[in-house]
Amino acid sequence: MSDHMSIKDIARVAGVSRSTVSRVVNNEAHVNKHTRARVLEVIERLNYTPNQAARALVTQRSQVVGVVLPGTANVFFADNSYFPMLLQGIVEAGNNHEQSMLLCLGNVDEPREHFSQRILRNRMCDGFIIASIENDDPLIDHLVQSVPYFVMMERPQRYEDRISHVTVDNVQGGQLATQHLISLGYQRIAHITGHLNIADGQDRLTGYLKALELAGIPYNADLVSYGRFSFLAGYEGMKALLSQHPDAVFVSSDTAARGAIQAIQDAGLRVPEDIGIVGFDDLDVATKTTPHLTTIRQPVQQKGAVAVQLLLDLVGGHKHSPQHMVIRCSIAKTSS
Length: 336
Description:
Layout: H1 7-14, H2 18-25, H3 33-46, H4 52-59, E1 64-69, H5 73-76, H6 82-96, E2 100-105, H7 112-120, E3 127-130, H8 138-146, E4 150-152, E5 164-168, H9 170-183, E6 189-192, H10 199-215, E7 224-225, H11 231-241, E8 248-251, H12 254-266, E9 276-281, E10 294-297, H13 300-315, E11 324-327, E12 330-333
Parallel strand pairs: 1-2, 1-3, 3-4, 4-5, 5-11, 6-7, 6-8, 8-9, 9-10
Antiparallel strand pairs: 10-12
């Protein structure tokens, strides 16, 4: 029956005007509660479903949120559950608000400017959630200049006074990881960074340095390997660090920490007996290592859900940009 029903039919059965039904359907104010209840009862009884295309013409809202990953699709599908966990949080929050998600992935051989233009030509989305974007990506400039509603999933290193973002306290998390190793008596604590062109990697390095300073441990540049959030970066970084004889290492992601553990074991050493290690993220890969990985928990799904709510608040005019939301981290496991 819903295939043939219209607002006019609902109004006739409920005994109200079409504009009243429209206000109820769009959850607008200025409708008497008894009238609203009667209209909703008729809608439920007749199984009426609004025409989404027609609704979008009236409300100027598509109820579609774009999720943009400017990196590469192969990163998304690699052995790294960060992005699936993030998307799960985004999708579940979107479903709760009757929003659909449009996933926009970059290609490994696609110029960044071309990817930016693909996003800007999109007219389907009410707003965008941007994850893991590099500081010098031209998309940031285009978004600031042309897109009214978007939320970044990391602290922006440019335009901070104009961009809303949701992130975890990466400085606090990096400091917590390093302090944990210090509390166990380690002194030659190395660090394998994440991608420093993304704020998360930069801030975790800052936390590492802050913990050393507070503990009175001199900074040693030879104990820092500049990497990315990948298994290979963790493996190669740890191989390079072994010549410096660290007794522990803080690695900026769990995926990279798995690579570091593999390099330690390939060198005939043991974790944690010879080298202690702490990762970051609390992904499922932390339990796939032998031994299990001590790691810093960032609530990835919660971060995605908060980003959706913030974006919808911006689109709906309930909040105004910029909004900066920071979630604290904690030690997740201490089994190694």
